[in-house]
Amino acid sequence: MNRKVAVLGLGLMGGGMARQLLGAGFDVAVWNRSPDKAAALGEAGARIATTPADAAAGAAIVIAMLADDSVSDTVWTGAHGALAAMSPDSIAIDSSTLTDIWVTTLADLAAKYGVRFLEAPVTGSRDQAAQGALRFLVGGDPATLADARPVFEAMGSAIVHLGPVGSAATVKLANNFLCGVQAASLAEAIALLEKRGLDIEQAMAILTDGAPGSPMVKGVGRRMLDRDYAPHFLVPLMAKDLGYAAQALADVGIISAMAQAARQCFVEAAAAGEGHRDIAAIVEPLRKI
Ligand code: NAP
């Protein structure tokens, strides 16, 4: 396999991932809808492509890190999409958080071009992407994963094969379902403590040192108290993930009040002007009540 890798989508996650690949010595081409995000990577040695197809041409492996199903569809299969430009037997990897239904469809579309496909959503956030410390949840053919392993190792500290395509999307949605519900309930708990006039640091220590003190509650709780909303994970993307989780649950006959209620918190926060901020900002509309 050649060392040519393309990265499509240079947001909070994709930008860090591309930088790790450059650092590991891969020959990296990058593409992003908004070209400004590619400039620094160009200075670091990446080839800046003008379209997904331009980035993908000649690459052994193409990795997408995009907002949602619809954007993934456009970038892989739309006009100037990556799939049609890829060489037979090359590997397409989508690391975005997507539905199991879409990644299964995408795997079938890739096969029509003779392209091998892996879904590889991640746990970890902006900082882990920048440090090459993501955990990749992989669905697809184990032999394809073996061929792609050096690329995953450049971007992550753990690679977990979960089964066929669709398995990793399901686990990732379950993961973010729990994260989203925790963040939404945490925002309400913090708003309650503040409105009752408690010493907020003392009260939060009870929560973070006790049974509810998950990494999510500790990390996002700190940012809520500090009013630090520089984005690690944007509000609308958590709304998207909770919507996808609610749909996956509905597909197996579970109408999830939890996923729907948590999603509503993120949808309302975005509507209240917090859409460009970190998920910690969902506490702000509650502070204003
Ligand atoms: P982000 O910073 O908002 O980046 C989103 C990317 O999608 C950008 O490259 C953006 O391009 C592109 N995009 C959006 N709409 C588009 C369109 N219509 N056409 C073409 N490109 C479009 O988000 P992120 O945090 O990097 O997340 C990327 C994916 O990883 C998402 O699926 C997210 O759920 C998942 N994820 C995020 C985290 C996290 O903590 N941040 C963790 C795990 C998984 P522009 O720059 O032009 O807008």
From TrEMBL:
PANTHER family: CYTOKINE-LIKE NUCLEAR FACTOR N-PAC, OXIDOREDUCTASE GLYR1-RELATED. Keywords: NAD, Oxidoreductase. It comes from Sphingomonas bisphenolicum. The keyword Lipid metabolism does not apply. This is 3-hydroxyisobutyrate dehydrogenase. Gene3D superfamilies: N-(1-d-carboxylethyl)-l-norvaline Dehydrogenase, domain 2 (1.10.1040.10), NAD(P)-binding Rossmann-like Domain (3.40.50.720). Transmembrane segments: none annotated. Residues 166-285 form the 3-hydroxyisobutyrate dehydrogenase-like NAD-binding domain. It comes from the Bacteria. InterPro entries: 6-PGluconate_DH-like_C_sf, 6PGD_dom2, 6PGDH_NADP-bd, HIBADH-like_NADP-bd, HIBADH-related, HIBADH-related_NP60_sf, NAD(P)-bd_dom_sf. Pfam families: NAD_binding_11 (PF14833), NAD_binding_2 (PF03446). Residues 4-163 form the 6-phosphogluconate dehydrogenase NADP-binding domain.
